[in-house]
Design goal:
The chain is built from 25 helices and 17 strands. By secondary structure, the protein is an alpha/beta fold. The longest helix has 40 residues, at 342-381.
């Protein structure tokens, strides 16, 4: 960034600060302006600062003659009011004045991390989230920051895709060297397409070869019945010039081989560090991932104005209240006070709300299928005569009154695992990434339940009525009498079915379910006993007198009992078997939260008999395994 200042004596000066790779291109080549010894000493100091993990900038200045400034100012004004390509024109005009600078020196500051940053990033990685760090720092500084915030560690296999002078400096300890010379760049420092393609292929080959070696070693250890080694993870370090090469290749053709190779490599590694990137380039990187991987959800988080473009480009933007102003917060979807708050925001509230929304969606489709299908079956039986068996008042209130409160409360407050367990075992977050809550299969399972329950509610009433609609007391059930009984069963089944999905009982859920059923009962009671009132409010009382003699009949209660048994027992049995023999991560989390370890209820202050171990799983991730049992034989399931 630059600022132009006019002093009181009329002197015009430009002061420029920025990353060293940007400012160096704008320095004057005149040795009288920038003596070689000063330049070399400054570069040496920069390397020292970077090795210490400091964030560095170069500062330059130049005196601008009036004869140069006046026409430039006119061009700048024209660029600022341009209606087409305004941003591109502004940058082009600014480049004209930011030339021939005198090197003033370098700055270095320690950008101290907030508390909990490392723990948050480690938890997100354990939860299956791919974390990319996009920074304007030098490659060395970015790598050191990655170590300090636990984005990468010394045991990782570091893959470098770095161009220009950074490629000449080799690789950090434990990394894979640049087997292809990325020093072969154009005049702008961007590597040639064929060189970049060959380099990405070599990195992919190195990564795969390393993983295959790990698998071979573990296969040998498995045969020898020796504990398996955890898979060694990889990280990718890429700088702005290499990224520009990828961007230019992808812009020239959407299915560019370079772009595909880069995304293929980035998707295989655990973490990605992008160094020396500009705010605009940050936005392009996020957009590239969004467009090339449409099934992935991107989240950008930052605290400064330079993070605004990527925050606005991502699916979800999170701004942090920091010392760099409120621009990031004002542009974000969510605002948090510190980076560590991202951990509960994603792992706890994000996971809870994903499950709640999934349950809400499936349940709404289920209960509406349950509501309309008995009427459909009546249409089949009546040769689609158009006869309507539902009582209008009860039918219209079904969604608005009789089944509204329970699902509203559950979809707002239900928790399948408490917050402490989720924070302790971040791998629970993988349930969302693996689409365990909402799939085509789960949706159609709910719809199948709705269809089956609709069949039960209709045909059980029809069978219970028999062919003779005249009762022993001489009264006829009638079409609408049968309809109100079906609606009674539909209301009971819909509300009680939701109870099987509630995993966080506070008492309010039971109260709302009870109230919803009682409201239906009261509605039926009023409609059955007060004919004049129902007519006065615009609902002809076609169910007058049905409640008393129906509820006095044993067939009514037997039909109610039989319907609830047939509708609830299958899913209840499935849930019991599944949670006993095929538990999910959340099932195990709830057992741990309730104190059950190895099939034994733990008392206060007692030591658990369980063990925690790290195993290698098929998908190559490190999983936390809690060994416990509900039977003497014991079993294990991954958290």
């Amino acid at each position: 960034s630059s600022v132009i200042v006019r002093y009181a004596d009329g002197t015009i000066m430009i002061f420029t600060k920025g990353a060293d790779n940007v400012v160096k291109k704008r320095l004057s080549a005149d040795t009288h302006v920038n003596p070689p010894d000063v330049y070399q000493a400054t570069m040496a100091h920069l390397d020292e600062y970077v090795n210490d993990g400091l964030r560095t900038l170069l500062v330059g200045q130049r005196k601008i003659p009036d004869a140069e400034y006046e026409p430039w100012a006119a061009k700048m004004h024209a660029a600022e009011i341009a209606l087409v390509n305004r941003e591109e024109e502004r940058y082009a005009v600014m480049d004209e004045i930011e030339l021939g600078l005198e090197l003033m020196g370098a700055t270095a500051i320690e950008d101290k991390l907030q508390g909990g940053v490392g723990d948050t990033i480690a938890a997100l990685r354990d939860g299956g989230v791919k974390v990319w760090m996009l920074t304007g720092d030098k490659v060395g500084t970015a790598v050191n920051i990655g170590y300090s915030c636990q984005l990468i560690n010394l045991e990782m296999n570091m893959l470098r895709c770095v161009a220009g002078e950074d490629a000449e400096k080799g690789v950090q300890e434990g990394g894979v060297a640049d087997t292809v010379g990325l020093t072969d760049v154009d005049k702008n420092g961007v590597p040639m397409t064929d060189v970049l393609t060959a380099h990405l292929n070599s990195l992919i080959h190195a990564h795969d070869a390393f993983q295959q070696e790990q698998e071979r070693v573990n296969e040998t250890r498995r045969r020898d019945q020796v504990p398996l080694l955890p898979p060694k993870e990889s990280c990718l370090v890429v700088d702005t010039n290499a990224l520009r090469g990828v961007e230019e290749a992808m812009e020239s053709g959407k299915d560019s081989e370079v772009g595909q190779l880069f995304l293929k490599l980035a998707s295989r590694v655990k973490s990605v560090i992008c160094a020396r990137v500009s705010p605009k380039q940050k936005s392009k990187i996020v957009a590239m991932v969004k467009e090339s991987l449409p099934l992935k959800v991107t989240l950008s988080i930052g605290d400064g104005a330079n993070d605004v473009p990527m925050i606005q480009t991502a699916h979800i933007g999170v701004g942090i209240f920091g010392l760099e102003g409120q621009q990031a917060v004002n542009s974000a979807d969510f605002a948090i006070g510190q980076f560590r708050f991202l951990k509960p925001l994603m792992l706890v509230h994000g996971r809870w709300n994903l499950r709640r929304c999934s349950l809400l969606t499936c349940y709404l489709f289920y209960k509406n299928a349950l509501l309309v299908l008995p009427q459909f079956f009546l249409g089949v039986r009546s040769l689609f005569s158009g006869m309507f068996t539902w009582y209008d008042l009860v039918y219209q209130w079904f969604n608005a009154v009789y089944t509204a409160l329970p699902i509203l409360f559950v979809a707002t407050f239900d928790q399948d695992v408490n917050a402490d367990i989720v924070m302790k075992y971040p791998s629970l977050y993988k349930d969302g990434l693996e689409r365990k809550f909402m799939t085509h299969g789960s949706f159609w399972r709910w719809m199948f339940e709705g269809i089956m329950h609709g069949v039960v509610c209709y045909f059980f009433v029809e069978i219970a009525m028999g062919e003779d609609v005249v009762q022993s007391n001489g009264k006829a059930i009638g079409l609408f009498g049968a309809g109100i009984v079906m609606l009674w069963l539909v209301d009971l089944v819909a509300n009680l079915r939701l109870g099987l999905e509630i995993l966080y009982w506070t008492g309010y859920e039971a109260a709302f379910i009870t109230v919803s059923i009682l409201v239906f009962y009261v509605t039926w009671s009023v409609a059955s006993s007060d004919n004049d009132f129902m007519v006065s409010v615009g609902y002809p009382n076609i169910v007058y007198g049905t409640m008393g003699w129906m509820m006095n009949g044993s067939w009514f209660w037997f039909t109610t009992f039989l319907t609830l048994t047939f509708c609830r027992m299958p899913m209840y049995t499935i849930y019991v078997v599944k949670r006993s023999f095929l538990p999910s991560r959340a099932d195990i989390g709830r057992e741990i939260a309730s104190g059950w370890i190895n099939g034994v209820k733990q008392s206060e202050g007692s030591k658990t008999n369980g063990e925690t171990r790290v195993l290698n799983t098929d998908d190559g991730h490190i999983e936390l395994q809690d060994v416990y049992a509900q039977s003497p034989a014991g079993r294990s399931s991954a958290l």
